[in-house]
Design goal:
This protein is α/β, with parallel strands linked by helices. It contains 5 helices and 7 strands; from the N terminus they run E-H-E-H-E-H-E-H-E-E-H-E. The chain has one domain: Flavodoxin domain (Rossmann fold, 3-Layer(aba) Sandwich), CATH 3.40.50. Strands 1, 2, 3, 4, 5, 6 and 7 form a 7-stranded parallel sheet that branches.
């Protein structure tokens, strides 16, 4: 397919690179488990990579936001730049984003890699929970100019007991739901590559949709 109209940083080719970013550093995190599962069920046209250096990022300091960047921050920006789309899955802590994840987002503000980048999120918290985190995420994504793919943003509740010893979720409905997120992103990228849907991405909010539950709070 032609790629003349694709959003900045995307490709209209049949293959898509999607970077999966968990907002949790917790061992056994349901958020990370959801993204591991997404990687496992990714369609053949998608290369899904799980970002695993959240804990390695130094505390953001504007005085350090220049070349050469701290190595972990430089790697983060390279990974974002190389991806066609991003998927976030974050817990809520004290009514907002966890500090470590907000720190990651702070490291994206001074670069241009995330501007115009198609993004989506998965919320694995139970209904009525996690809203503070996603409101804060919406604010940051709007500030940096990311392109939120509304149809790909899903609430897919997940219980900790549903996570297997391999760190993934075996529940078929959950796996189908997270696969649906990736298919929605892939469809967006294909249509955007034809100049069809860039205007439908909303960088001001994250309304999302509900999906079949596989459990309870994350």
């Amino acid at each position: 397919m032609a790629n003349t109209s694709a959003p900045a940083g995307t490709t209209a080719a049949a293959h898509a690179r999607i970077l999966l970013i968990s907002g949790s550093t917790r061992e056994g995190s349901t958020n990370t488990a959801a993204l591991r599962t997404a990687r496992a069920v990714a369609p053949a046209e998608v290369t899904a990579r799980l970002y695993d250096r959240l804990a390695d990022l130094p505390a953001f300091n504007p005085d350090d936001d220049h070349e050469p960047l701290p190595p972990a921050a430089a790697e983060l920006r390279r990974e974002i730049a190389a991806a066609d789309a991003l998927v976030f899955c974050t817990p809520e802590y004290a009514g907002t984003l966890p500090g470590s994840f907000k720190n990651l987002l702070d490291w994206t503000v001074g670069g241009v890699e995330i501007s115009g980048k198609p993004v989506a999120w998965i919320n694995v918290a139970a209904e009525g929970r996690g809203e503070g985190a996603h409101e804060a995420l919406a604010t940051v994504l709007g500030y940096v100019g990311a392109a939120v793919i509304e149809p790909a943003c899903r609430r897919i509740p997940l219980a900790r007991l549903a996570v297997g010893p391999d760190g993934q979720v075996a529940d078929r409905s959950f796996r189908a739901a997270v696969a649906g997120v990736l298919h929605a992103i892939l469809g967006y990228l294909r249509e955007a590559g034809q100049g069809g849907r860039a205007a439908q991405a909303d960088s001001a909010g994250l309304p999302g949709r509900s999906a079949p539950a596989a459990g309870s709070p994350a």
